[in-house]
Amino acid sequence: xxxxxxxxxxxxxxxxxxxxxxxxxxxxxxxKAFQRFGLYHELSNARYCAAxxxxxxASALGQVVALDVLKxxxxxxxxxxxxxxxxxxxxxxxxxxxxxxxxxxxKCYRYICKAPRDFDLGRAKEAAKLFEGKHDFKNFCKREKxxxxxxxxxxxxxxxxxVLTLNFEARxxxxxxxxxxVNAILAxxxxxxxxxxxxxxxxxxxxxxxxxxxxxxLILMKVEYTDVKLEPNPNLAQKFIEHLNKKLAxxxxxxxxxxNILSTITNT
Length: 268
Prior knowledge:
The protein is of the alpha+beta class. It contains six helices and nine strands; from the N terminus they run E-H-E-E-H-E-E-H-E-E-E-H-H-E-H. It has helices spanning 26-37, 75-81, 121-130, 177-190, 195-203, 238-266, and strands at 2-9, 49-50, 59-68, 86-94, 106-114, 133-136, 150-160, 163-170, 218-224. Strands 1, 2, 3, 4, 5, 6, 7, 8 and 9 form a nine-stranded mixed beta sheet that branches. Strand 7 (150-160) and strand 8 form a beta hairpin.
């Protein structure tokens, strides 16, 4: 039997999704839970594959992994094994040939950040629109030896006021592409980068790579397929929801503390 799993995680405590020697990763925790539950014995025989990789600090609501399993998965039991910052939100039996990376028709990333001072949303929207379509994104990705930098962005959008939400959709993304697009859009919105200069960077007239935005604001929202739709089931995520609520309460308190200190220092 081959199963696909919809996975959510808070990536702030991990060195990315993909396994790395001697470092905590989301994938390592996930595979340990699968093995402990008895879904596989040898990973090399399970044809395991993940839809995407996220960098250190990035989170996900819609990561998809697949493997050949030795018995029917019990999602509540698996979630009980997993740490509270990782949750399986859905599982479904798939065709034996299913590959969550190669069969994806669309990946959707979202980036959340505070709007910079004097931010012009209109200019930022214009910048985001330029990224749609096929382009050479050599200035907007971390270049990998032997891999071309041409890609197609289906949708690039920015909205918000004090807090910005940036959405990107594509069949596949280059390494750090979404985070570098974010920084370019923010730079145009603040006036640090002109639309004309952005066009030159995108047309390949200039060789001046844009730095990536911090990974903590990035969320892999969903991965779409032609014949299957994996939807999050909140009833399977109670431990994960509790974890997020605790972190939200903690950071809300810290934000209030910092605001109080700042107002006292500046006498405002």
